[in-house]
């Protein structure tokens, strides 16, 4: 498999105004860090938060963790300065909040081009408005245009609840159509998608159930609000030993000379096709990428 995988099982938010959290993040076993300038930061603290994030990212020390800065929207008093500061700091990605359509990403990508930002600086998009749910496929199409840099969707279930008036209920029955629509859209754009946050961070049982649900839906990982959520998240979004062993068995079976011209075979009484071998190779590639991360 030629594609290389970057594990995005966990993405921990932290307010840019919280210097202790920015420091502690260097020691946490998470795949991604989202350093927030938007909703977790009060208006009076925006300038301090921006400065602290620039200093933290410039100083580095985040190791293999993917560093993402969530900026304020361009329709706010802080958006332009946030983007300029993020480009100067050089994170892996900028997370654009409250994306309503492709034009929102085009505006940010245009500023990155004007600032000569390196191509490795990607955009992530918050999917959290009613309009974004209706236009998810169009927004995801940015993933096919290198100029638009889109590499990941992030579900914003808190804002979705606020804007639609849907309730955040256990099991998320009311949100499932939007979540699955965004999963499908992300795949059409060739990008990753991360599930929304679980606010009740002391309820680890409920959190684990929601992680399992997200993994079943095809999410690549989940956004987190507290370090205590990391372990359950990784357990849900890492391939299990059983999945790895099954993937190896499928690969080995199709590698046998007697199966060379077969499209479908049986293993342990189950029908297995070459598409399952493709899926298995993906599982193995993810497992290898996680192991390589250490
Ligand atoms: C929710 C919190 C404010 C709780 O913080 P605190 O009271 O400090 O918790 P603890 O005392 O239990 O903390 C224990 C130690 O862990 C560190 N800590 C806590 N949270 C984080 C974190 N997010 N990142 C890094 N480190 C963290 C504390 O510093 C303690 O460390 P130590 O000093 O060594 O003891 C807090 O957890 C928090 O601010 N969480 C993130 C909030 C946030 O960023 N929200 C924005 C995104 S959520 C969202 O809305 C998504 C989307 O937009 C949507 O619409 O849905
Ligand atoms: Mg939000």
Automatic annotation (TrEMBL):
The keyword Magnesium applies. Gene3D superfamilies: Phosphoenolpyruvate-binding domains (3.20.20.60). Keywords: Lyase, Magnesium, Metal-binding. InterPro entries: Aldolase/citrate-lyase_domain, Citrate_lyase_beta/mcl1/mcl2, Pyrv/PenolPyrv_kinase-like_dom, Pyrv_kinase-like_dom_sf. One of its GO terms (molecular function) is lyase activity. Its cofactor is Mg(2+). One of its GO terms (biological process) is oxaloacetate metabolic process. Belongs to the HpcH/HpaI aldolase family. PANTHER family: CITRATE LYASE SUBUNIT BETA, LYASE BETA SUBUNIT, PUTATIVE (AFU_ORTHOLOGUE AFUA_4G13030)-RELATED. This is CoA ester lyase. It comes from Pannonibacter tanglangensis.
